[in-house]
Structures are given as structure tokens and as C-alpha cells.
User: Fold this.
Amino acid sequence: MGDGFPIRVYLRLSAVALSVFACAAFSAEPQKPAPLKSGIEFSSDDVRKLQADDFANPGMLWVARGEKLWREPAGAGGQACAACHGDAAKSMKGVAARYPRVDVSAGRLVNLAGRVNICRERNQKAAVFKEESDELLGLTAYVAHQSRGLPVAVSVEPQARKNFERGRELYGTRIGQMNLACTHCHDSNWGKQLLGETISQGHGNAYPAYRLGWQAAGSLARRIRACFFGLRAEMPAYGAQELLDLELYLAVRGNGLPVETPGVRR
Amino acid sequence: MALARVQLPARAKRGEAIEVRIAIQHPMETGFRFDLMGKAIPKNVIHSLRVRYNGAEVFAAEMGSGVAANPYLQFYTVAEASGEFVFEWVDDDGNRGSERASITVVP
Assistant:
């Protein structure tokens, strides 16, 4: 009895030490706002109604465009998306909720729009869509729309850990003339007023979304760039690695929120 | 690529009021904006939209700079006979678009 007790304590202590070590090496848990709230919860009634109405929601025009493109043969092979993937309602259900993720063959982190372009280039042998083009937004919105209502479930794969860490770092780094980081608005002050706007928690679950201010649909990258602009910081170019890393961090941070694509925001 | 969505009930009773909706993807350029080089962007809005129901005009709209991009319109009409709704519009650049939808009217 006298011998057994200290050994058990020792074992337990070493287990604690191990888990502490593991946490220090890598923690996939970002600091999350509690309770998690989608951006739509900070919107006015008008905007909510617009998003909820599948006909009046102007983002559905992009979804309709994507649906058309899905069936349209493209590229050297003359293959449409539908030729391989069939009915998007089945084959694409839940896909958008897992992006950004590492594309194994490309060997890098990609978001959904990036994945669409990879498919276009590699399988359809067609020219890639331009960033923020109506075509790319349309097809991305159409694919993401198939996951509407499903919870975002992005995991940080071992290959993407560096991306995640860089995203986390950027999220907490003060930038621009305003000298603010993402966290200062979207963690410390969400729900409060910033002039005419209520500060949201900064989730990307509704994107590609229709923003009334843009009078058009846009990607999450465009929205993040708008935040950089607001902070009077230099905006990263479309397709910049920083934006993608930040997208990954935001997605993990918003895990569990329902996909809303196409969302409507002010 | 002109893109539009129209919505009306597939079936209706004769004499019933039906809701017809149309959304068109269009920038509705006001003519008051300038590009990054400071050059005025010419006005380009869908200035006229006409809807015919079995050949008879049931709705028309004239729009101007004040209408937001991607205009969405909604109106009511009375279901009289089975047939087709034809939506036609034209913008300042002379681009025309059209869309069709059919309805079955039961007595």
C-alpha cells in the first residue's frame, strides 16, 4: 500500500505533463466567442427577410448562374461538372462545410473557390476562372449552397498547421493606421455599435454572400480585404496566402455555425 | 450573359389573384459614378420591362438611376387562362433579355 500510491501519483502527473506538452506543440482550438453567433443575427429584420426568401435573395442569382455552369460542358474535354459529379444536391452536400482544406494533389491549402479552379484546370482542361468573377462566385456559391444549414466542420490537417498558426497570428496582430487587430472588434467588442453598424463576430459561414453595399455577391476574401481597408491597412491581393490562412483560422473559429450561402449582408 | 429568375405558381384557379416575381442580374449603373481613373461610367440601367400574359400586356415598369443593382419586381395579376408569361426588358446599352414561364389554370 505504501509503495503503490506514489507510483500512481507519478503516473498521473506524467500524463498531465504530456498533455501540457501536446498543447504547447499544437492547439487547434482558436479562441471562440461565446455564444457563437452568425453575422445574420446582427442584421436588421429587412436583411434577414431578404436572406430567408429564396427568390428575393439576390445572391440566388449567382447560385442560378452556378447551376447553369455546373451543367455546361467546358474545356478541351468538353466535360461539364455534372458529367463527373452528377447531381450537386447529392455529391456536393456538406463539401463546402469542410473548406478551406489541404488539396492532396496540389499539396497546399485551398478554399472552395480554389478547389473549383483546380478541378477546372486539371480535370476539365479549361482556363481557370478569374478571382471574383461572376462565374467563379456563381459556381462556388452553387456548390456551397448545397451545404446550406449544415454545420461548418473544418479541421486543421497536419499539413495546414502552419497556415492555421499564421492565420491565428495575423488575427491577433495590429495592422493599419487604425492599429487594430481582428480580435479587437470581433472578439472584444462584438454586439456593440460602430457608427451605424453592429459589430459582428466575423464569421465566414454565409460566403459567398450578397452585400448590399457592393450591390453584388462577393467572396470571403473580398470581405476580409474590406476589413483591411477599414483599418487603413494595405489590402492583400486576391489569392494572397495571408487571406487564405486567415480564412482557415476563421472557419475553425466558426466551426458549428450553419452554412448560409448565399447570405445577405449590409 | 443576361440572367434572370422568374417565379409564379405553376397552377392556379381561374379568377384567382397570383403573385408574379422577377429578379434580373444587372449592374444598374447610375451614370453618377467614376472609375479608378476618374472617368465617368456611362449610365446603363434596364429602363423598360414588359410582361405579357398570353399576348396581353399585364405589367410594365420604367426604371431609372434610383433602382438598385439586380432589380427585383413583384406584381399581382388574375389567372384567366392557361398559357405563358413572357418577360422582356431592355437596357441603355440596347441589350435585351427575356424569360418565359407557363401557368396552368384550372376552373
The mean pLDDT of chain A is 90. The radius of gyration of chain A is 21 Å.
